[in-house]
User: Fold this.
Amino acid sequence: MQVIKRSAGEGMLGYELALLGIATATALLWVVQPVLSLGSVYLVYLVIVVVVAATRGWGPSLLAAVLAFLAANFFFIPPVFTFTIAAPQDILALVIFLALATGTSQLMARLRFEAEEARRHEQATATLYQLSRTINQQQDLARLVAAVEAQLVRVFDLRDCRVLLDRPSPSAGAVPSNVPSQSAGTPARAGETRLPLVAGGTVLGRLVLDPSQPRAAFTHDDQRLLAAFAEQLATAIQRAQFQDAATQAEVLRRTDALRAALLSAVSHDLRTPLGTIKGAATALLAARMSWGDADRRDFLETIIEQADHINRLIGNLLTEGRIEAGKLRPQKEWGAVGQIIARVVERLDAQLAGHPLTVQVATDLPRVSFDVVEIDEVLSNLLENAVKYTPPGTPLTIRARQAGETIAVDVADAGPGIPAAHLPHLFDRYYRGQTNTNAGSGLGLAIAKDIVEAHGGQIGVISRPGGTSFTFSLPLLPVVEAPVPTASGEAPILEEVPL
Amino acid sequence: MSRTKSILLVEDDQALRRILARTLSAIGYLVFEAGTFSEAREQMAVKPALLILDITLPDATGWDVANFLELLTNPVPIILISGSTPEAKQLRRFHPVAFLPKPFSVEELLAVVKEHLARPTTTYGI
Assistant:
């Protein structure tokens, strides 16, 4: 739809209709002339002039008035078939008719023009409103540009429309556009209309409109409308560019804050076991102390455990580094999940000492393909979390079972549960549930998730006051996608493993 | 120096707490242990002569423990032990007699304990 458009052919049609109307009226009046007075003839002609004025405007109605004046004189005022007039009162009547006809036609034409103006104004306002809505609905620059281009093509029936920016958005290209990206400096094609996009005295780019028919230029109203729209668009683009810049700055700020938080958490996590090692070693060396064999052995074992703890922490950081670099490639081997559970439980024996532990591994559990080191890390992280966040003495359960085409492993505790607000972010990198305490680096669960997913499995959590259960799955076949593990799946046959 | 004075040791790392408690007990102090704020509150039935305090605890901060103890009794000397730097505001508020950043040696701790338990507690105020 071109908003306001009237073709030259349409204008000529008005004059043709005026001619036709007067000719038809004259023919009819000629037929019924014996029963009509001259006054009736003028009235009929006046009606024709008014109708033409109302529908076709000033020019055609003036033509109709003149034609009616001539036709009345020629056909109906004696002597007929001449342009002379015998009676002086007929001359006066005819002059009055002409004045009335032209006056009426002018009045009607003005009314018609005003009505058309109002309609044009209404259409323009509606179009501008529609375009403004498109602008306001989009905050993102790339989406805004794409939406405006599509809308202008539709509203103005264009062949093509492009918003060319001098400084393209960093996020441009996020939304696929049917228009190849060009800079504002691209030379104009024939028939194109280019409108500058200016906001706050700065030229941001150009709005390029390519009409469907190269010769069809925009009307004056269209141009006015487009200029108004270009102004709004420029403001919106500037706003979106500011928004983009603010977002970028916020991302940088958050990344810095995350790094600082991670560094602080990691240094705390490293100092805690180092503190224990130094405490144990200096206690053993203290000149005034005379320790018995059992104490000495206990202190030495503590040193070894804490050294292992530091090693695992460093392992986590290295794994995280590999994950971030996209280098996590599980070295899978066929193995039994039960064996790796037993291995991890044995290694974490000292840490688990304060919690009664039950391990349930389903009988005839199929062997599965996994990276021993990485799944060890997943289990260790889950168990260490359970110990860290539950009161001493509360029981822990490790369960391995078949769930569909996967092996599912649950690590469940009987602790206070995780607040619902934390659950959606639990596996997010650097997310720490408790920020005011030694809640760790916020990497353990993120790493566990990445490792499990690299194996084609999934990890999830169910938590309520009275207990939390983490479940991860490993696919029985080494496929990329595994079914979602169900913590409340069908009851498998379980075998109690005494510890 | 009285060897029967009691010490409340609040440290969430079980292994370090065990080593410190055993060492202090071997010297002759009466040591009450707590791994959390709530455990520390339970151990305050006997008023300690000295508080050895870790700042980061699972259920609260060491400052909460100090604050709670202050409500119950006269000021008690506090020895801070922590892997992180304590906030200046809290240091001004509670005036710990010493801050031992982790890792520290038991000799350092014993020296500070001996120094402050030998003096009358009433000299330590805010």
Q: What stands out?
A: Chain B touches chain A at residues 12-16, 18-20, 22-23, 26-27, 35-36, 56-61, 81, 83-84, 101-107, 110 (CB under 8 Å). Confidence is low (pLDDT under 50) at residues 120-126 of chain B. Strands of chain B lie at 6-10, 30-34, 50-54, 78-82, 98-101. The radius of gyration of chain B is 13 Å.
